[in-house]
Amino acid sequence: MTGEVLRYAAFPDEDSTSSSPGNPAGVVLGAETLTEAQMQTIAETIGYSETAFLAPIGPGSRDEFRTRYFSPKAEVDFCGHATIAAAVAVAERHGAGDVVMVTNAGRVTVRTQEHGRTITATLTSPATSSRPVAPRVLTAALSALRLPPESLDPRYPARVAFAGNHHLVLGVTEAHVLDDLDYDYVSLDALMALEGWTTVHVFHHAGHHLYTARNAFPPGGVREDPATGAAAAAFGGYLRELGLVEVPCTVTVLQGHQMGSPSRLMVGIDGDHPGIEVTGTATRLSPSPYDEIDLP
């Protein structure tokens, strides 16, 4: 059989002049006939950090989907940027509105809205939580990241934050620490596998409600992710749980600039909902040889 793979760039920073802003994701609509092995084959062939596979729940459903995410290496329970891309793809075909995605991490509702020719999507993450990092684990992480302990910002305790996946969250004191980040891929990959982390979210407080970030993503088979919606949601929960922002508020996370793929994620933090809202746009990428894949 042949499967059509739609390609989108999620969370592009529209203020950027870059030729490749945002984080590319694959989207497969009507995936109900695909096996798990076929989904993994598509994700591996495309090579993006994630591809989302949507199967309608109920005959002809246009607003509720069983949604699974695969990186080139394995299935991932939840992925923010592929969720945004998939919701925009659905809205372009069926009109804006609420889309419910039943993921391995739970039900995720995505609100899509039309703003002229642009469609924005806002996902509400699963309930967030965080926990401290054991000192020996933090030492191992800093060693793999090649970061000295004094580079950490004491205002932002190291935590493992959750919003569908687990992410190590580390705040650094200076912006140049992000620019110079060059980690040991093999060591960090092994540590993340042992600890069950999906990404390592290294961030810098750049201004009022403004943060810059980089996300190491060895479990996905890529060195770095240019825009990570799930990590942004977990980060929003981290800020709320530790009282580091007044709620309700919206913070901006700028990511991917060091990769040449500048991205902007708007993170809505509310005290009345256990999840976190993450908003962005997604733009359709031009066709490639991978848009049609022959499957066994």
List the helices and strands and how they pair.
Blueprint: E1 2-4, E2 6-10, E3 23-29, H1 36-46, E4 51-56, E5 64-70, E6 75-76, H2 80-94, E7 98-103, E8 106-115, E9 118-124, E10 129-132, H3 135-145, E11 159-162, E12 166-172, H4 175-179, H5 185-195, E13 199-207, E14 210-216, E15 224-225, H6 229-241, E16 249-255, E17 263-269, E18 277-284, E19 292-294
Parallel strand pairs: 3-4, 5-7, 12-13, 14-16
Antiparallel strand pairs: 1-19, 2-3, 2-18, 4-5, 5-6, 7-8, 8-9, 9-18, 10-11, 11-12, 13-14, 14-15, 16-17, 17-18
Helix pairs in contact: 2-6, 3-5
Organism: Nocardioides bigeumensis
InterPro entries: Phenazine_PhzF-like
Keywords: Isomerase
Number of strands: 19
| Class inferred from helices and paired strands | alpha+beta
Output the CATH homologous superfamily of the largest domain.
Diaminopimelate Epimerase, Chain A, domain 1
The proportion of residues forming helix, as a percent range, comes to: 10-25%
> Tell me about the biggest sheet?
8 strands, mixed, barrel
Strand content: 35-45%
Family: Belongs to the PhzF family.
Protein name: PhzF family phenazine biosynthesis isomerase
GO molecular function, one term: isomerase activity
Keywords: Isomerase
Write up this protein.
This protein has 296 residues and is α+β, with helices and mostly antiparallel strands. It folds into two domains: 2-125 and 282-294, Diaminopimelate Epimerase, Chain A, domain 1 (Roll); 129-273, Diaminopimelate Epimerase, Chain A, domain 1, CATH 3.10.310. It is 22% helix and 38% strand. It contains six helices and 19 strands. It has helices at 36-46, 80-94, 135-145, 175-179, 185-195, 229-241; strands spanning 2-4, 6-10, 23-29, 51-56, 64-70, 75-76, 98-103, 106-115, 118-124, 129-132, 159-162, 166-172, 199-207, 210-216, 224-225, 249-255, 263-269, 277-284, 292-294. The strands form two sheets. The protein has an eight-stranded mixed beta barrel with strand order 2-3-4-5-7-8-9-18. Strands 1-19 form a two-stranded antiparallel ribbon. α2 (80-94) crosses α6. The longest helix is centred in the N-terminal third of the chain and has 15 residues, at 80-94. The termini are close together. The relative contact order is 0.19. The model has no long low-confidence stretch (mean pLDDT 93).
